[in-house]
Amino acid sequence: MACTKCASLGSGPAFLQPVQSTRPRPASSLGQPPVQGDMSSVAAAAAATASATASAVLAVAGAVSLGAASGRRRAAKLPKVVRLQGAQNMPSPTLEINYYELDAVEAPRILSAIRLAIKMASPIVKESTSPEERLLKLLSEPSVQSLLTTVSRLPVFSKEMALAFKEPFLFFFFSTCVMVALVPQHSQTFRPVEACVGHGLPSCVVRVLRCLARSDRSSTYTAPIPLRNVGTWLMASDDLDLLLALKQLKYFWNLPQSQLAILLEVMARQLEGPSQAAPFQEFLRVLTQTPNHAKNIKHLNDQLPAEVKAEYLRNADYLETADAHAVYPTSIYRQCDGFTLATKDASTIEAVMSTTLTTTIKIARKVLEPSNHLLYNIYKPLGRCVAVVDDKVDAIYGKELDAYFAGHGIEFKKIVSSGNEADKDIRDVERILVSLKKVGLADPQSKKMAPPDDRFVVTPTDLMISTLTKSQNMAAVGEVVRMLDGVDGMVVKYSTQPSEALRNISVQTAKTNPNWAEMEKKGATSKLLEAGRDGESFCNVGFCFHFPDYSCPLLIAEMISGQAEGQLLQLLVKFGRVKKVLDIGTFTGYSSLAMAEALPEDGRVVTLERQEEAAKMAAENWASSPHVGKIESRVGEAQALLQALASQGESFDLVFLDVDKPGYFALYQTLMETGLLRVGGLLAVDNTMYKGEELTREQLSVNGEGARALNAGLLADDRVLQVMLPLRDGLTLAFRQH
Ligand SMILES: C[S@@+](CC[C@H](N)C(=O)[O-])C[C@H]1O[C@@H](n2cnc3c(N)ncnc32)[C@H](O)[C@@H]1O
């Protein structure tokens, strides 16, 4: 009988049996803890025992199901309205929104399908065509396609799936024995098992049984063995590696191409022996030399013959509703399940959610020997391996690890972290997470940083450098990055908070970012965002939200001066009893309004902007402020506007200069020569550190050059006294003394 869902599709997988009863899930099952597979406790116990002595215990995020019996679920709709027990008095009936039930699996038929696919695939992989062509031919081979689509529908996260391949008691016993037998201290007890490894399965079983008869009856492993099931067990392949391969194959649609080749090789080896696997191994070798071997199988779809492609797409469509994880896996080792009940008007919703995780624990020797493919098979298709390594393990195996991955051409990123109990806290987790985020991104500074001598910690920068110097590992780098990230957030947090109107400007400016991009496309704002060295906007000042721990300041609008600078300007206005302000570079109006707010009633801000659009937006932003009357906006090139102001006899107590950097020095000269900056007045200039470009040894951008020209000009001009504050992108204050 065909599966009911598959039958509706016309051609369903042959190995899935229909559900015998579509019994509704009893309401009482809500909230019950998931059933833990028996295997988990035994395997975990064995692993725990073994880990002390095995040469390596690899917890590979794999696919042996240890979790709840969720399994492939049927989307079979139950009677629409289900009354919960004791729910008679409820105002409205409860609707069942979703319902799943397990399918059954017929293991022997899956095994024969794999055998057929391997048989048909074998001559294809031996062909002399390119590996890419052979892969396409493999995917077009009907028996391979049928196997793939069928396996994609298997309930791999279920205990039922494992049990379909394994007779439970004997399987638990045997797999545990083999594992323990590999551990020297247990080999005494289980010597006969060790001896049978590598023999044919039937003789192995006999030896295991003999061994059992002799072994300590009180042992955990002397569970009764239902001999009637030995036949079933032999008929299915008693092979965890095969089970693991199937569990991965379920996600074939999203697997890297070379992963498929690995799985074919594993299946051929497990079912037909090493000689049958050899051609697949060779195929894998050449395939991993192709540039796209790490790309997903689904990317090949467009290159397949139309009817083959249609079949795969039909399968993907089917899976989308029947088992979305199979086509959109968030992780192939995790599956979520949900069950939702709602009142008719959806005013109350009750939901039960569960997540099933799968893990494979491998206990193996000599995993870092180049000929051992355990790690290769996992990481080669992914192209790289990122590993969090205990510092003691690194001390012993670090070099071997590096050599293994280098030898196999797999990029290897190692995050070394202390494994001491005392260090295992949330900060350690944070450090590892930061390192994971950073790893793989080349740090342009890392090569330039010569470790300085131990130094006095006076500033946050000193602290960071000292931390880096003392322990140059990834965790320390991550920690320093976190601290650096936190500096701006800390400044914002502990500076007076901006007015509602100023906050609104920040928000409005952030919202308009896409508009700037749009305007730039139309050529309307060609000068608004002056290009920096890498084409980025010139001005790295920003408004930032902050998190309570000072981490992750978030730039939301690059050009705006923002809270910290706005507060400084307000302070300067108040402290200097300023009456007349010149704001050069209006943008969306933040600095103008900030200064206007601090001015007395008869104070005045003249603000200059070359872009009509920006000036318009600024005016809109000030409109609702009670201080709008203090602001006068002028549109045009700053240089021309300065000349006009000078010819009107204007002069200012405070000038804030924040326009394009190449023009800085010329504007400064005008301010000085015309007297627009009065003697006794103060000039504030933004972005004078210009992204720290001078700290690098690289050539400066035009903006960097502009900032440097002004800095040098101020230094050489004895009419002014100046100080450069490392606030955000650098803010220089210059007092005109004569
Ligand atoms: C960094 S933003 C000013 C930010 C503003 N002070 C604030 O607090 O949000 C620079 C502004 O100056 C304008 N600008 C740049 N060069 C200019 C020039 N030479 N003359 C006039 N305006 C200019 C730009 O169009 C831009 O709006």
UniProtKB/TrEMBL annotation:
<dbReference type="Pfam" id="PF01596">
    <property type="entry name" value="Methyltransf_3"/>
</dbReference>
<keyword id="KW-0949">S-adenosyl-L-methionine</keyword>
<dbReference type="GO" id="GO:0008757">
    <property type="term" value="F:S-adenosylmethionine-dependent methyltransferase activity"/>
</dbReference>
<dbReference type="GO" id="GO:0032259">
    <property type="term" value="P:methylation"/>
</dbReference>
<keyword id="KW-0808">Transferase</keyword>
<dbReference type="InterPro" id="IPR002935">
    <property type="entry name" value="SAM_O-MeTrfase"/>
</dbReference>
<protein>
    <recommendedName>
        <fullName>Caffeoyl-CoA O-methyltransferase</fullName>
    </recommendedName>
</protein>
<dbReference type="InterPro" id="IPR029063">
    <property type="entry name" value="SAM-dependent_MTases_sf"/>
</dbReference>
<feature type="region of interest" description="Disordered">
    <location>
        <begin position="14"/>
        <end position="36"/>
    </location>
</feature>
<keyword id="KW-0489">Methyltransferase</keyword>
<dbReference type="GO" id="GO:0008171">
    <property type="term" value="F:O-methyltransferase activity"/>
</dbReference>
<comment type="similarity">
    <text>Belongs to the class I-like SAM-binding methyltransferase superfamily. Cation-dependent O-methyltransferase family.</text>
</comment>
<dbReference type="InterPro" id="IPR050362">
    <property type="entry name" value="Cation-dep_OMT"/>
</dbReference>
